[in-house]
Design brief:
heterodimer, A: 268 residues, mainly beta, Immunoglobulin-like, 2 domains, five-stranded antiparallel sheet, 17 strands, 5% helix, globular, B: 676 residues, Maltoporin, Chain A, 22-stranded antiparallel beta barrel, five-stranded mixed sheet, 31 strands, 55% strand, binds copper (II) ion
Chain lengths: 268, 676
């Protein structure tokens, strides 16, 4: 930098006199999210109190769920095995939905994080309940609460019937939640329906991503196709060159070929 | 001039008055400087003597804009996208390759489509003279490979007796049904002076040579200039200048968008010490700042799939200090240090009903700091031989200033956007009287230029020229040029002939390269090009001019120029002006009336760039007739200028005109002014 010394001198004097073109570092800080309590109650047959939290209202799609457990004395329980049991009663039939149980038995900052992928909204078709089964020190009990699932303004869950194995697949949109013009982390999760009650994560797919601005008929460069990380989650990069309505086209293939395609809308 | 002439000073509006004029001002002239002295302005700022009144006539079409005046200089051409806001090129160098300054002040255009070159902010009414420098001498103004264009502002004056003077003028041009009005007031006192001027222009869509209206070619603008001068000490003057320039509804027929509004505010304060007794005979220091706001939209265009706004903003502040001294007998040294900081931002918003607006930064917020030290050393070795050495070291520092801007560029994998450039330039010129009145000058040197903000950071900037969206590349290297120039001139009181040949090789020549993997953003665009450095390009050409005073009352002025350019693959470069000649014959009838016939000839340009989809351009020949009459009463000077341009209503276009839009057909102009 020595050779720039006198340049710096000039520049400093300029900047101090005119203060033109000063750098603005306005990278938005990551927002601290709030826990929103959905329900609380006792696990049947135990004196363990269960509190169920989410970040936002529950909607069709991937919903992070946080469980807080308290013993009879009101003390937080830090060690437990938890599983979710979402169920939709549609009168004639019942079905469950994909879940992600808290992966470790250890609470993080007092909460056990997991997720539930609700596959449709509550309404005339039927109503949802969410069961939370806990196992603490050999004691096991379940707390079940009715939950209302809303349909988000832009769909965050897509499904298709695979061309290769005929099964129904669900693809949930996780990221970007706060899209920006630039490079964005992209994350989706894929599940397969086996019967009405079993929705395992699908880990062997190849995903091809193609963003498109439908009104202008253009895409964006240098996107990174999502690849599987864990538990059916696929992470990649999506680039937006401008704000507005984008379609993120995803083509999903397995070992025997293209299974299906779908798109998510991103409007910002 | 050098030798006082009793007869009218025969200097055409398009005359090359290089060395003789400068010879009066500086002890040692620079051969590579071409100056147009606008006599109209000279009159109003200087004493009202008879001779200067006559010089009023030389500015043939006084309703002309600064651009129209400049386009008659053989070194200059204009890239035309509309009838206003044409982009000056020097010997086919354009954009960031040339340095365009207003009285030494840098002004960055705020338009991503180059609709607002700095030449539009000055009107003939507040212009003193235009200085065009080619090759090395331009290094005093900035780091450029194609030369420099500097427009000197008219100044206020001092007078021993307090005096108010002024002028009112009005003009009309038929092809565009255009009106112009100008007003100037000057007040001179022994220790201070003020000068205020205003020009208003309104032009409708013009009519081309086939009688068709060229849509979106209208414009309206007002320019105000105020300058003050204060004598602080016997040899120390404080000057303050302010220019406001506003344009509205400026049409660009060759582009998909027009300008709704464009505002420029340009101000400066300077100190000048002029004293030949001192060691530094002249020292000037100046602080300046300017702000350009540009609002581009397509609201006037019918049937568009999407409406779009593209505003841009540029702010620049800077300073320079320049001093001249004589380090020895017959030597002159001018040293200049300058620095400036520019801030640029431009965005695009598109509107589609029922959707969030589509928004992007077309120039991600960025700033450019630049600083340079330059020196010009002249040495009159002997009666016949003269040497001039020009040099400059230029530093610049570019950066994208906001996270938003950096995020956008990261889409292209550009992680680091800050760049620093160090650009040295040196040139040496030797002149010698080789035979009687024949003088030969040879100059050679190297220089360079930084990439522009568009070339570094541009984000999907659509170019109507080749139909591609352009994306910047922060990893560009600067362009470097090696060049040589040879001039022969013959000079005697009645005849002056000059011919110049030049050639240059530009290393790392910057152009856009088509990237088929990228999808165009602009609807209808053919793809995306990213700027990159090509190995090299060659530019060469020649200019010739003759000023011949056939009799004391008849004068012939003729200029000729030709440019040649090719890239490393041998393909012609785009936007190369073809062979062109302008010849005028002027005759004076007494001291008050003159008539001038003029022909303008351009050869066909068939060396067009295929990769830019450039089309060949046909040859054309135009005839113009101009006349001026002046009447002097005791207190007033009346002037009438009139003429017909393109008498035969030829349908033509120039090679540098974008979009194959025809130029105006027959144009009758008339201008009346009264000075007191
Ligand atoms: Cu778009
Ligand atoms: Cu513009």
């Amino acid at each position: 930098m020595k050779k720039y010394t006198w340049l710096t001198l000039w520049v400093l004097s300029l900047i101090t006199v005119f203060s033109t073109g000063c750098d603005k570092d306005d990278d938005t800080p990551t927002p601290t999210f709030a826990y929103q309590k959905i329900a609380e109650g006792e696990a049947a047959g135990t004196d363990i109190k269960i509190e169920i939290y989410s970040n936002e209202e529950l909607t069709t799609g991937y919903n992070p769920i946080y469980i807080a457990l308290f013993d009879a004395s009101g003390k937080r329980i830090e060690q437990a095995a938890i599983s979710f049991q979402p169920m939709m009663d549609m009168g004639m039939k019942q079905h469950a939905s994909p879940i992600e149980n808290p992966s470790s038995g250890q609470a993080v900052d007092g909460y056990f994080p997991g997720a539930v992928v609700f596959t449709m909204p509550s309404g005339e078709m039927g109503s949802w309940t969410l069961g939370v089964q806990v196992q603490v020190n050999g004691e096991t009990g379940t707390f079940t609460t009715p939950v209302t699932i809303k349909e988000p303004t832009t769909s965050r869950l897509k499904s298709f019937v695979s061309k290769t194995d005929g099964a129904k697949y669900f693809v949930a949109y996780l990221q970007p939640q706060q899209p920006k013009v630039g490079v964005n982390d992209l994350e989706v999760a894929v599940y397969k329906a086996i019967g009405m009650m079993d929705f395992p994560a699908v880990t062997n797919l190849t995903l091809a991503l193609e963003p498109e601005m439908p009104t202008m008929d253009h895409g964006s460069p240098n996107n990174v196709n999502p690849t599987h990380t864990s538990s059916g989650h696929y992470k990649g990069k999506v680039n937006f060159t401008m704000t507005g309505l984008w379609h993120l086209h995803l083509t999903l293939s397995d070992a025997s070929g293209e299974a299906g395609e779908l798109h998510f809308e991103v409007n910002f | 001039m050098v030798k006082e002439m009793k007869m009218p000073l025969l200097l055409g509006a398009l005359a090359l008055v290089a060395s003789p004029v400068l010879a009066q001002q500086k002890p040692i002239p620079a051969d590579s400087v071409r100056t147009i002295v606008l006599q109209e302005v000279a009159v109003v700022t200087k004493r009202h003597d008879h001779q200067q009144h006559l010089q009023n006539f030389y500015n043939a079409n006084q309703a002309a804009t600064t651009e129209e005046l400049m386009s008659r200089m053989p070194e200059l051409s204009f890239i035309r996208r509309g009838s206003y806001g044409m982009e000056p090129t020097i010997r086919a160098y354009s954009g960031g390759q040339v340095s365009v300054t207003l009285d030494g002040m840098r002004i960055q255009g705020a338009c991503t489509d180059k609709m607002d070159p700095a030449t539009i902010y000055i009107e003939p009414l507040n212009l003193q003279r235009i200085e065009v420098q080619t090759t090395g001498a331009s290094s005093m103004q900035g780091a450029a490979i194609g030369g420099s264009l500097d427009m000197k502002l008219a100044e206020a004056d001092f007078a021993d007796e307090r005096k108010l003077s002024g002028s009112v003028s009005s003009g009309y041009q038929s092809a565009a049904n255009a009106m112009m009005g100008g007003l100037r007031l000057s007040y001179a006192a022994p220790t201070w002076g003020l000068r205020a001027s205003g020009t208003y222009r309104k032009s409708q869509n013009y009519r081309n040579g086939r009688g068709e209206k060229v849509l979106y070619s209208q414009y309206e603008k007002a320019n105000y200039a105020l300058s003050g001068k204060f004598l602080l000490q016997d040899d120390l003057v404080l000057k303050a200048d302010f220019i406001a320039d506003d344009g509205w509804k400026i049409g660009y027929p060759a582009l998909p968008m027009d300008v709704g509004q464009a505002n420029a505010r340009i101000g400066s304060v300077s100190l000048v010490r002029d004293n030949s007794e001192r060691r530094w005979s002249r020292v000037e220091a100046r602080l300046y700042a300017n702000r350009i706001a540009h609002y581009m939209d397509d609201s006037a265009r019918p049937d568009l799939p999407i409406r779009m706004d593209m505003p841009g903003l540029s702010r620049t502040s800077g300073m320079y200090i320049e001093g001249t001294t004589a380090p020895g007998h017959q030597q002159q040294l001018t040293v200049r240090a300058d620095a400036s900081a520019s801030y640029l931002t431009a965005s695009m918003t598109m509107y589609q009903e029922g959707q969030t607006p589509m928004y992007m930064l077309t120039w991600p917020d960025n700033r450019q700091l630049q600083s340079g030290i330059a020196a010009q050393y002249s040495f009159q070795v002997s009666d016949k031989t003269q040497l001039q050495l020009n040099s400059r070291v230029n530093m610049s520092d570019f950066a994208v200033t906001t996270g938003e801007g950096r995020n956008q560029l990261s889409v292209f994998g550009y992680e680091s956007t800050a760049r620093q450039f160090l650009i040295p330039s040196v040139s040496l010129q030797a002149s010698r009287m080789v035979y009687k009145k024949l003088k030969a000058s040879l100059s050679g040197g190297f220089n360079g230029r930084t990439p522009t903000a568009s070339e570094l950071y541009g984000f999907y900037l659509f170019s109507q020229f080749d139909g591609f969206d352009y994306v910047g590349n922060p990893n560009l290297k600067p362009e470097k040029s090696v060049q040589g120039e040879f001039t022969l001139s013959w000079q005697e009181p009645r005849l002056r002939l000059q011919t110049t040949a030049y050639a240059s090789r530009v290393q790392d020549y910057i152009v856009g390269a088509y990237n088929p993997e990228l999808s165009a953003m602009t609807i209808g665009a053919r793809g995306v090009k990213i700027y990159y450095n090509t190995p090299y390009a060659l530019l060469a050409g020649a200019e010739a001019s003759a000023v011949y005073n056939i009799t004391g009352y008849t004068q012939l002025v003729s200029t000729l120029r030709y440019s040649y350019g090719s890239n490393a693959d041998g393909e012609p470069l785009p936007m190369m002006p073809p062979l062109r000649n302008i010849t005028s014959l002027r005759k004076y009838f007494g001291d008050y009336l003159w008539v001038q016939g003029e022909t303008e000839l351009a050869a066909a340009q068939n060396r067009n760039s295929e990769s830019f989809r450039e089309q060949p351009t046909e040859a054309f020949m135009l005839w113009h007739l101009r006349a001026g009459y002046q009447k002097e009463t005791e207190k007033k000077v009346w002037q009438l200028n009139a003429g017909i341009e393109n008498i035969f209503d030829v349908h033509y276009r120039e090679h540098l005109d974008w979009g194959r839009i025809a130029r105006p057909g027959r144009n009758v102009f008339v201008q009346l002014s009264v000075g007191f």
